[in-house]
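Q: Here's a chain of 330 amino acids. Please give me its 3D structure as tokens.
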Amino acid sequence: MATRHHRAREQSLSNQAEILDAGRAAILQEAQGLTALVTALDHCFVQAVDAILNVERRVIVTGIGKSGHIGRKIAATFAATGTASFFLHASEAAHGDLGMVTTGDLLLMLSNSGFSPELRPLLAYARRNGVPVIGIVSKPHSPLGRASDIMLQLPDAPEACPVRIAPTTSTTMMLALGDALALAVMQRRGLTRTDIAQWHPGGEIGSRIAPIDEIVACGEPLPLVRWDAPMRDIVFEMTSGGKGVAGVIGEDGRLIGVITDGDLRRAFDQVLTARAVDIMTPDPITVPSGTPVEEVLTLMNNAKITVLFVTEVDDPARPIAIAHIHDLVP
């Protein structure tokens, strides 16, 4: 019995090793393809970036099969980085969707072999209507390679598939090349994080780059006490605010300090005599309205605090809201 269990365990370990070897081999093969792609970039890549920068209307990405799936992602990346773009299915194009393509557009066509028959109606239409074509293809003498105004040739790298058939390395290189084009164009345009933010209002990205005043409640009553407030008033404000902090304001209503739960515990022996000014932390950390959420989170983490006040843009002592780290982390 023990011998049988031992053999079963050895077989299980052997199977795990084979699986890990297969996974690593696939990743390494694709990585080698990407390394070859880096070396292969030349003046044609520069021409492609310039053509995209100068397009009057839209970059229309098209492909068939696995290349089509990659094309959808590339079109989405262009759109998310400031280049008007959409994906056109090559098969549907020949059945009426060619009307989506017009003068002023640019076609980015993906095909590893370049011989896909579904691309031929698109190529003919583009030629008739003066629509420039950037081809991403591995065979320069294919129909797509010959018809492209700008050809970006994929290196001759083996597929990561064990029988070297399923599109793997080739599609990985296509995806990387599409990202490279989109990001090079974005850099040339000089787009900033603020520019990109307008196209990412939702999800985790949207929440990280949104201004802090879109996340926290502005205009609601804040847990504030006067500098001479007794401990009883401080505890009341902190409890009603629910953030574990109270801001301390001077005679002019400007923020001069904060009091946290920790400050209260440390001053417990002064509960009958202390005023807010006696136990507060002066010169509190604040952020102005409009600060991106991710910057606020970075500030909180670096300062090892969990709550801070949001202030008016031009006056860091005029609180308008309060932000707790739990409000900012999805």
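Q: Can you summarize the key feature?
A: DSSP finds 14 helices and twelve strands in the chain.
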